[in-house]
Amino acid sequence: MSIAVSNLTKTFGSQKAVNNISFQVNSGEIVGFLGPNGAGKSTTMKMIAGYITADGGKIEVCGESVVENSSITKKKIGYLPEANPLYFDMYVREYLNFIAEIHQIDEKKERVKAVIELVGLDKEVNKKIGQLSKGYKQRVGLAAALIHDPEVLILDEPTSGLDPNQIIEIREVIKNLGATKTILFSSHIMQEVEAICNRVLIIHKGQIVADDLVNSLQLNNSSNHYVTIQFKEVVSLDMLQNLKEVVSIKDFPKSTFTIETTHPEVMRRQLLELSIERDINIISLNSEKQNLEQIFKTLTN
Fold first, then answer.
1. Which of 152-161, 177-186, 222-231, 239-248 comes out lowest in average pLDDT?
2. The whole model's pTM is what?
3. CA 20 to 30 Å from 23, out of 172, 236, 241, 269?
4. Whether the predicted pLDDT of 206 surpasses 60
5. What pLDDT is attached to residue 220?
6. Based on the number of CB atoms within 10 Å of its own CB, is 300 exposed (0-12), middle (13-18) or buried (19 or more)?
7. In degrees to the nearest 10, what's the CA dihedral of 1, 149, 32, 21?
8. What does DSSP say about strands 256-261 and 225-231: parallel, antiparallel, or unpaired?
9. Model pLDDT, residue 189
10. Is 176 exposed, middle or buried (0-12, 13-18, 19+ CB in 10 A)?
11. Number of separate helices (H) and strands (E) present in the chain
């Protein structure tokens, strides 16, 4: 077991940020850690990484206690915090050399070169960190977290500030790292979590409200389905609201509607009958279960 958290609690003043949570992350897993702002996920990640101490409970990383053997566990963890503190006056390669020296890495030059290539910093190595865009600063932080080749990665919003192309690139880096490392990462981009993870933890108000495989989570929390239809002609919202089994309807440009329903097959049949009755053409019609974003909203509402 790479990460084992038992009855973990943390209080700031009168606020219980983390309230008696327990979970495990197995070796080789990539687990998404989700929650609204202020839910306690960053606090939990900081406690696992050993940056702050827990008020109660137990944390083990690779079988070692984070409290009792912090010097050992910190060698096994690569941590990219949400704030990503960097020395802006240092050059990229200089900074990574500095981090490598702290970790007392053998063959430092080769390792620095390897992580620069891994996270795509090749073209920026001769710049000062303060001159970089937010996205490239994030890559420097990720490189620093990887420099000592840790067994466990704790990544708090690793794609924050990246453009869509950069997000895809870092996503692939994380997926590839997952073949040899245990990764716990947080993100507000649900599509990213679905693309990288097969399991998610959802925390809300300091408590774990879901811990499951993505597919199982969708199956167990999807009482409603969504039918999306686009008409060729102009169709009014009122026309669709009279259909049976409608929970809610969202309308979009170009006569496109997403209908929430408990009976998708009944809904599809009604829409086909409506198109024949009113002599209107359907451009596309498809149905799907709740996605992760919709489940997240339900569990944290």
1. 222-231
2. 0.77
3. 172
4. yes
5. 66
6. middle
7. 50
8. antiparallel
9. 82
10. exposed
11. 11, 14
The pair of three-digit structure tokens given for residue 75, joined into one six-digit string:
């060698």
At 261, list the tokens: 């329903």
Gap between the Cα atoms of 59 and 48, Å rounded = 6
Q: Are 210 and 290 in contact, with CB atoms under 8 Å apart?
A: no
Note whether 216 and 289 are within 8 A (CB): no
Residue linked to tokens 């983390």: 18
User: Mean pLDDT lowest for which of 122-131, 154-163, 250-259?
Assistant: 154-163
Nearest to 213 by CA among 204, 200, 222, 231: 200
Assign 86 a pLDDT band (cuts: 50, 70, 90): very high
Locate 36 and state its tokens.
């609204």
The better pLDDT of the pair 108, 194 is held by 108
> What count of residues does the chain have?
301
* Tokens encoding 59: 């944390």
Rounded distance between C-alpha atoms, residue 41 and residue 237, angstroms: 40
